[in-house]
Specification:
Length: 202
């Protein structure tokens, strides 16, 4: 398994001879430092903690679970050798990845504050005519005939965004070890400048 921390820079367009114009998200991946290894004996799970300098005064540390996709406990023992690839104080850079590889990228989505049901869930809203001008963005009925209360989990207005999200199976279309850049086809969660986790697809 391969992984690295990076900072989302934004989206641009790259041109491919066969596929034409590609919408690409560029991610700056400066050299990461391995700060901690989690083991089965000590912690009960396998993970590697990487550190990246977000600014001159702030560092960010995040863990990557090696055994997260393994459902059978007995299979986790064979993954212990993965930790040997990430010794303490070792360095990780973009040379691990290559063009054409599939990766999953996890980050925190853009926070959009308190929103109504039309924006939060895509509700159609009420009618625009025949006395419905005040009901355009209302959610409609929220109750039930039985039981006589609002059912738990009902989609209603509330806080939107600012949640953990993982974009799956994104294709790497650009890698530059000199610049420390990775370009992936498609959108990546989060605002520009936010730290994201790049993980190879198992």
């Amino acid at each position: 398994m391969k992984f690295i921390l990076g900072k989302k820079l934004g989206m641009t367009t790259l041109f491919d001879e066969t596929k034409g114009a590609l919408n690409v998200t560029m991610i700056s991946c400066q050299e990461n430092t391995v700060k901690l290894n989690r083991t089965l004996e000590k912690d009960g799970y396998l993970a590697v903690q990487l550190e990246i300098d977000k600014t001159s005064k702030k560092t960010v540390r995040k863990e990557f679970r090696i055994d997260k996709a393994v459902t059978i406990p007995g299979d986790r023992a064979g993954l212990a050798s993965e930790l040997e690839k990430y010794p303490l104080d070792g360095k990780v850079n973009v040379s691990l990845f290559e063009v054409g590889e599939l990766v999953n990228i996890a980050g925190i989505t853009k926070g959009k504050g308190f929103q109504g049901t039309v924006k939060r869930y895509g509700f159609a809203g009420g009618r625009k005519t025949h006395g419905g001008k005040h009901d355009l963005r209302k959610p409609g009925s929220i109750g039930a005939t039985f039981p006589e209360h609002v059912v738990k989990g009902r989609r209603m207005a509330g806080r939107m965004g600012g949640a953990n999200m993982t974009a799956l199976n994104l294709t790497i279309v650009y890698v530059s070890q000199e610049e420390g850049l990775i370009g992936v086809r498609g959108a990546v969660p989060g605002v520009n400048g936010r730290v994201v986790k790049i993980m190879s697809v198992k």
